[in-house]
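[09:14] KT: can someone run the structure on this one? pasting the chain below
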Amino acid sequence: MEVFRTPDERFSDLPGYDFAPNYVEVDGLRLHYLDEGEGDPIVCFHGEPTWSYLYRKMIPPLVEGGHRVIAPDYAGFGRSDKPTDREWYTYDRHVEHMTRLLDQVDVRDSTVVVQDWGGPIGLRWAVENSDRVQRLVIMNTGLFAGQPFGVRNRPLRRRFVTHQ
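[09:31] RB: done, structure tokens below
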């Protein structure tokens, strides 16, 4: 599989984003995540086309409040590796990679924060790992509940959920 890795220097001097990078390997891909603070974990699932940078202003106050904040970048986003084959990207694969990443960092008793496409990914993770979740914070997202999608984003959503 051909993979693109954004050079680390591209992430230098980003305003408000001076967090230390962390990585795990899943299926030969380097996946990035932020892991800041100590205490009850808060896991922040980003949307499309964002990455953990989305949560840069939320992380410091949450850490100051006594929490551990984990904000992963999905494969293809932010500091994570980016497979170049578009067919590689599937909803199931994103959920599986996030599951394996969060298993490796041993997330338990967490608050799950979801936004945009982070909703379908993070909420599925929360349901499938309910023994690791205490609370949900759901923002600006939707559920894949078998209902027709809105006309505006139908082609993108169809591709997202139909590729296995």
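[09:33] KT: thanks! The mean pLDDT is 90.
[09:34] RB: yep, looked fine to me
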